[in-house]
Amino acid sequence: MRIFISGGCKNGKSTYAQKMAKDQSNPPHPLYYIATMSAKDKEDEERIVKHQAERDGWGFTTIEQPRKIEEILDKHDCEGSFLLDSLTALLANEMFSATGDFDGSACERIAAGLEKVLNRVQNMVIVSDYIYSDAHIFESLTEEYRKSLAALDRLAARHCDVVLEVSYTQIITHKGRDLFNAIY
Predict the structure, then answer these.
(1) Which of 114, 125, 118 is nearest to 149 (CA)?
(2) What percent of the chain has pLDDT over 90?
(3) Which of 24, 66, 158, 161 is most buried per CB count within 10 Å?
């Protein structure tokens, strides 16, 4: 099953996604955690350490893949179960370089790579941050980032069997309710 989870920042999506990925693991095939975050500051480093501690002992093999998501296909068992955490970080890494350069083609490149992954991997949980409810108009690069993340989220939602939103600890099912309820 492929599951897409969106919701506000730092609200428990990752922990919930880990449980779902673990539930759909298929021994003897591996359970993978695709870590996309590249630490930019101390807060990012602390968040990475927290996520590592949260999944310690769960049986995940961590794949550090901050860019070029499709590269996981050549190196890992596609019959395994994957947790991609997160589209938000993956886009930020590809769209904004460490030197501050902006890449306007990042969304299309990620979309092509993500489609390759979703066409080959059957068990996957994808996490993304819901950053669209603010009515404020941001500067152009931020707006381009938000627009690109929305496009990637829609692509993931189209390919996934179940689409969930985590909101204030509540799970809202937007797609695949019967399938989700039959399993969870």
Answers:
(1) 114
(2) 72
(3) 24
